[in-house]
Automatic annotation (TrEMBL):
Flavodoxin-like domain location: 6-154
Molecular-function GO term, any one: oxidoreductase activity
Record has Iron-sulfur as a keyword: yes
Name of the protein this chain belongs to: 4Fe-4S ferredoxin iron-sulfur binding domain-containing protein
Keywords: 4Fe-4S, Iron, Iron-sulfur, Metal-binding
Key word 4Fe-4S present: yes
Listed InterPro entries: 4Fe4S_Fe-S-bd, 4Fe4S_Fe_S_CS, EFR1-like, Flavodoxin/NO_synth, Flavoprotein-like_sf, PSI_iron-sulfur_center
Positions of the 4Fe-4S ferredoxin-type domain: 184-215, 218-243
Pfam family, one: Fer4_10
């Protein structure tokens, strides 16, 4: 089937999900690719409308084995009409549990026809230089895999005349979903003297939890512990205080150091 465009939709506070879906898009090789980055709160105001003539690629990170609760409302509101869709989850080398089938269910529920799914590995949000987990992933091998997955999606689309011919259910998973969509409410970010109040942290925060005028003022009720502000601080002024998140970082580093590989389902 012919598609007029590919829409790449992603939520990606620390950039690994974005890198993966862009890799997939390179493999799909469509001349008309539109990016819809829903990481920032202002990008999740307008609902998305799509038609049968488009291919939707939706990528989210795995949070506690689930699709991040923060984006489910926006995803549920997508207005699709038989739109072929690719479901992509990116996880930090621990587990993705049922996040992929959850994403498939959400997209099916709003009128999409899932054509493929994949789980990739990205550097864990809680990874630090001292306790790295899946450091620098997706790496060249992962991105090569993503491009090859993209080519396979294209071949699958080329082999059918319309979205009605997409066969059901290649994506594995259980219902009710494992994992827990409830995140921690925790005061875990230390701001050091190197901070120059440039405001980058507030800009990259996906939930508006940081005061743009005072980067030490963090609303812990809004914070989703994504660590974008830590990882993207140009002065490396933000670190983890001792406690829940730093302990988790050490635990992940200790227990999940064995490299996992991407998987796709077509
Ligand atoms: C609150 C939270 C929960 C997470 N839960 C999981 C998980 O259950 N399994 C896992 O392997 N990685 C987990 N991660 C790690 C992210 O899925 C991973 O780092 C991903 O690559 C981040 O995507 P991004 O770079 O697009 O933000 C979690 C990260 C955060 C912030």
């Amino acid at each position: 089937m012919k598609t007029e465009s590919v829409k790449l939709v992603y939520f990606s506070p620390t950039g690994t999900t974005k890198a993966v879906v862009q890799g997939i898009a390179r493999g799909i090789q469509h001349e008309n690719v539109e990016l819809l980055d829903i990481t920032r709160p202002d990008a999740r105001v307008q609902p998305l409308e799509t038609s049968e003539n488009e291919l939707l690629v939706v990528g989210v990170p795995v949070y506690m084995g689930r699709v991040p609760a923060l984006v489910t409302e926006w995803l549920h509101a997508i207005a699709a009409r038989n739109t072929p869709a690719v479901c992509v989850v990116v996880y930090g080398n621990r587990v993705y549990d049922d996040a992929l089938i959850e994403l498939e269910d959400i997209l099916t529920g709003c009128g999409c026809r899932p054509i493929a799914g994949a789980a990739y590995i990205g550097e864990h949000s809680f990874s630090t230089d001292e306790t790295p987990t899946a450091k620098d992933r997706p790496d060249a091998g992962d991105l090569h895999h993503a491009e090859s997955f993209g080519r396979k999606i294209r071949e699958k689309l080329d082999a059918i005349a319309s979205a009605d011919q997409i066969p059901d259910g290649a994506i594995p998973g259980c219902r009710p979903y494992r994992g827990d969509s409830k995140l921690w409410t925790v005061d875990f970010i230390a701001v050091g003297d190197a901070c120059v109040r440039c405001g980058t942290c507030a800009e990259v925060c996906p939930v508006g939890a940081i005061d743009p005028e005072d980067s030490t003022a963090i609303d812990t009720k809004k914070c989703i512990t994504c660590c974008a502000c830590i990882k993207r601080c140009p002065k490396h002024a933000r670190t983890m205080k001792p406690g829940l998140v730093r302990d988790a970082s050490l635990r992940l580093h200790t227990l999940y150091s064995e490299r996992k590989e991407p998987e796709y389902f077509l």
